[in-house]
Amino acid sequence: LNKEPPNLTFRKKDKGGINFVSTVANTHLDLDTVKAICNEYRIHNADITLKYDATADDLIDVIEGSRIYMPCIYAVNKIDQITLEELEILDKLPHYCPISAHLEWNLDGLLEKIWEYLDLTRIYTKPKGLNPDYEDPVILSSKRRTVEDFCNRIHKDMVKQFKYALVWGSSAKHKPQRVGKEHELEDEDVVQIIKKV
After folding, report:
1. Is the preceding omega at residue 176 within 30 degrees of 0, hence cis?
2. Is the four-CA dihedral 147, 153, 156, 157 of positive or negative sign?
3. Which of 91, 137, 144, 146 is most open to solvent, judged by the fewest CB atoms within 10 Å of its CB?
């Protein structure tokens, strides 16, 4: 929970033995340790590249490929029934959000934290000649938030008819900015798609 996947590459190959490359100084793993771990999994030929100071557990996680990395928020309820000293102790905990469901305290804070941890982007549509629709945003992952991803989310044929897009918001250099399919959108941008005639 609340960990990122290890930043190392592991690729099996047919021959050539274990090729181990580290782009940073490594204190936990060396070639002998990597070979021993690979032998446990009956892997005798592989390319392994470490991009940070990885541990043996990180390498095992990548070899097994079965680990799921997931963000987690601890919603601590009934904060209306604890003292300020106890609340200060809770403040030292990572990834937590204090709430009171009974008195409806900090529910908006919990909602903001959920939105942040899900790492989503809201994009609003603007029909030609009308005001933007702020009621029903198009939700995109923060990893896939280009104008092309936006078009595919609305309809798969929209990319074929795409001419250009007008963008208002923090990703635009000026309001509106004319952009292509590769433009990266930011949270709460407004997009108007112009189709080919």
Report:
1. yes
2. negative
3. 91
pLDDT, tens digit (0-9, with 9 covering 90-100), for 149-161 = 999 999 989 999 9
Provide the pLDDT confidence category of residue 91 given band limits of 50, 70 and 90: confident
Calculate the CA dihedral of residues 33, 35, 40, 42 and round it to 10 degrees. 170
Strand partners, 76: 98
What whole-number distance in Å separates Cα of residue 130 and Cα of residue 127?
Answer: 5
CA distance from start to end of the chain: 49
Pick from 81, 96, 101, 8: nearest CA to 50? 8
Length of the chain: 197
Name the token pair of 177: 């900015």
Dihedral (CA of 159, 163, 168, 170) sign: positive
Residue 7 has pLDDT above 90, yes or no: no
Phi, psi of 90 (to 5 degrees): -65, -30
